[in-house]
Design a protein that fits this description.
heterodimer, A: about 350 residues, alpha/beta, abc type-2 transporter like fold, 2 domains, four-stranded mixed sheet, two-stranded antiparallel sheet, B: about 350 residues, D-Maltodextrin-Binding Protein, domain 2, about 65% helix, elongated
Chain lengths: ~350, ~350
């Protein structure tokens, strides 16, 4: 194995691979999926009412609304902007706070708030916004609540929001899409175009070729894993440990990609394998979606040992003690895959006249 | 134009299309995937806050309030209230203490318990606190110092809101139609690269025959799948003719885009590379239906907006020809322009 030749091959992969569709798809795909999931579970299915505010004076109500968790607020500068926002459903209700409103209500003078209501807003959103406005104005005027409220959560099962449940799936997708697909399709393309035979007649070894492609897959996979965690603000309290686990996951993805490249003869085969065998890679993430499925089932799949430490570190605030065993298993899987890869490469015996 | 030749070309295209394994997998897995997504989405909109109330004393404001969006049901005991909250019957359970009246009359603050399930979001807990506090203000006769004048913008849909799954209809229609861009582009680009199109032109087949055959194959494949899915998900129940016309125009638009892509693409990989950015752009307008207010007016420059808006208005609101004719006209204009551009560029490539 020659480091210089591998460096040359790697720089070729970076130069020409960056024009590769798979590379672009591996970067864009997980980002789009991540954005869509946060839109669906952060905006679409979350029914937090949205209030538009046009403050004609300098009402304290605006900052008081900002501090509330029960509604989302958006401020507008003109009435036409706000009416437009209500018409398209950007906010459920838009209110106009007239100039001098605060002084009027504090002096007990009757005054009026103009409210524009989106026709498609839900009745409960209208109610929540309505009582929130009323409550906030009462607070502004110094009215004291006649009751004390105690909030009690029933049951002892911890609930996991869908956003969090889907994070392992997105991370696995980010790590394995590029890490696995890039080396495998790159090898398959070289085989199809027979450039792999051309390389072998030079002093370059088959290990150099595969390692260069694997390193590119690793870099992409590692980078995407970090990017998705950053986008989802899921770096937890142990970022160094999380980065180490992501690196080990990226190694696994690149190794599996190289193994797939050894056996797959063209892109269509890789595509078909990805669609059918992809379930094995994503099974632990699917199991994590449904907490009622026993966790031991996930341990059957190799990607569990990437998923569990990531979930533990990014969502549960765990540390090294919580992930040590599974991380060692992950390292063992990575080492085993290297040996399997070397074994299959030698067994395949790539020659200048084609693989035997 | 020779109808016999065209029919042979169409049947050849269809058999070639169904021979490409990756495309078939994408098509069928996609169709099943769309249906699964549609049927797992909520089929109704829960517009009201269902609240359970255990109150050993009479509190008229709590029990008799006539406020839209609030549905307060009395419960006989605190234990039953907790059980009902846990089994999801109520979003919150309000437990009023026995001494509420005495404490209120002596200016003391009675403690009201609110019960939630473990998965209740914090904003719902906060909102319920606000609702209960406001009911308490009303119960103690503390008036508000301001009035609210209301104006509803758009049609007031209270009680008849569109369920999330039905908001998916335009997205599914556009997805199915636009995914056909992949198959048709691949089919044509292969013919160009393998020079079978040129081989055909030395036979009595004319360029016009080839384009008519490709158009029939492309429009047919996209249109049939879209109609099938729309029929299964109930998108054809209202204004079926408008839906059919808009889907047909959408299928023609996708075919025109396929012509443009296949003039540039050389193999399956480059078809994917060209198709996906275009697919993403064409799908963006469906987000205006799924996430109202998320996208502003610029979306109207994307041709598929007029397909999405027409399908949404016709399938979900029952809008008639008078409401959507402008959309259909603009969609027809875009389709004609893209279709013509596709044919023009591809014809030059053939020659």
């Amino acid at each position: 194995m020659s480091i210089r030749r591998m460096g040359v091959l790697l720089s070729k992969e970076f130069l020409y691979g960056s024009r590769n569709y798979i590379l672009v798809f591996s970067i864009v795909g997980p980002i789009i999926i991540s954005i869509i999931i946060s839109l669906i579970f952060g905006t679409w299915l979350a029914e937090k009412p949205r209030l538009g505010i046009l403050d004609e004076g300098r009402s304290q109500l605006v900052s008081m609304f900002d501090d509330l968790n029960s509604i989302d607020n958006l401020e507008y500068n003109t009435i036409s902007d706000m009416k437009r926002a209500v018409e398209i459903g950007a906010v459920d209700i838009g209110i106009v706070i007239p100039s001098g409103f605060d002084n009027s209500v504090m002096r007990g003078e009757r005054t009026e708030i103009k409210a524009f209501i989106w026709g498609e807003s839900m009745a409960k959103s209208r109610t929540i916004i309505g009582v929130t406005i009323a409550n906030t104005v009462r607070e502004l005027t110094g009215q004291k609540s006649p009751i004390e409220i105690e909030t009690i959560t029933l049951g002892d099962k911890a609930s996991i929001p869908w956003n969090d449940r889907l994070l392992p799936f997105i991370v696995l997708m980010a790590v394995f899409l590029g890490g696995l697909m890039l080396p495998s399709t790159s090898v398959a393309t070289e085989k199809e175009k027979r450039t792999i035979q051309a390389l072998i007649v030079t002093p370059t070894s088959i290990e150099d070729i595969f390692l260069a492609k694997g390193i590119l897959g690793f870099i992409l996979s590692f980078f995407m894993g970090i990017l998705i965690l950053v986008l989802n603000k899921a770096f937890g309290t142990e970022p160094i440990l999380l980065i180490i686990v992501l690196a080990l996951g990226a190694v696994m993805a690149a190794e599996l990609g190289m193994l797939l490249g050894v056996y797959a003869k063209d892109f269509t085969t890789i595509f078909a394998i990805w669609k059918s065998a992809g379930i094995i890679l994503f099974a632990p993430a699917i199991i994590y979606l449904f907490p009622q499925i026993p966790e031991w089932i996930g341990k059957i799949f190799p990607t569990y040992y990437v998923t569990q430490p990531i979930v533990e570190l990014s969502q549960k605030g765990g540390g090294w003690a919580d992930i040590a065993t599974n991380t060692f298993i992950l390292i063992a899987i990575d080492v085993a895959l290297i040996f399997i890869l070397l074994f299959t490469l030698r067994k395949k015996q790539y020659t200048a006249t084609g693989q035997q | 134009m020779n109808i016999h030749i065209i029919s042979i070309l169409v049947s050849k295209d269809l058999s070639l299309f169904f021979r490409k394994r990756a495309i078939i997998i994408l098509t069928f897995v996609g169709l099943i995937f769309y249906l699964v997504i549609y049927f797992v989405m909520p089929s109704s909109v829960d517009e009201n806050l269902k609240i359970g109330l255990y109150s050993p004393v009479s509190l008229p404001v709590f029990t008799q309030i006539d406020e839209e969006g609030l549905e307060i049901s009395p419960v006989e005991s605190e234990e039953m209230l907790k059980e009902a909250v846990l089994d999801g019957s109520y979003v919150v359970g309000i437990s009023i203490p026995v001494d509420v009246a005495e404490k209120l009359s002596s200016n003391q603050k009675p403690r009201v318990n609110l019960y939630f399930t473990p998965d209740a979001p914090q904003e719902i807990k906060d909102a319920m606190e606000v609702v209960v506090r406001e009911l308490a203000y009303m119960q103690t006769g503390q008036p508000l110092a301001f009035d609210v004048s209301e104006e509803i913008l758009g049609q007031d849909m209270t009680g008849t809101l569109i369920p999330p799954r039905d908001r998916l209809r335009p997205l599914l229609a556009i997805f199915i139609i636009m995914m056909e861009i992949l198959g048709l582009s691949n089919l044509i680009s292969e013919e160009i690269e393998r020079r079978t199109a040129q081989a055909l032109l030395v036979t009595p087949t004319t360029v016009t025959d080839i384009f008519i055959a490709k158009s029939i194959s492309g429009i047919g494949l996209a249109f049939v799948q879209a109609v099938l899915i729309m029929a299964i998900i109930g998108g054809m129940n209202r204004q079926p003719l408008i839906i059919l016309v808009s889907l047909l125009l959408g299928a023609a638009l996708a075919t025109g885009v396929s012509f443009l892509i296949s003039a540039r693409a050389r193999d399956f990989m480059s078809v994917l590379a060209w198709s996906f950015p275009i697919l993403i752009i064409l799908i963006i307008p469906s987000f205006t239906v799924m996430f109202p207010g998320a996208i502003t007016g610029w979306v109207k420059i994307i041709p598929s907006y007029y397909l999405v808006d027409t399908v949404h208005r016709a399938a979900n609101f029952g809008s008639g020809w008078g409401d959507v004719w402008v959309n259909l006209l603009i969609l027809f204009g875009f389709t004609a322009a893209i279709f013509w551009a596709g044919i023009y560029i591809l014809r030059r490539k053939f020659q």
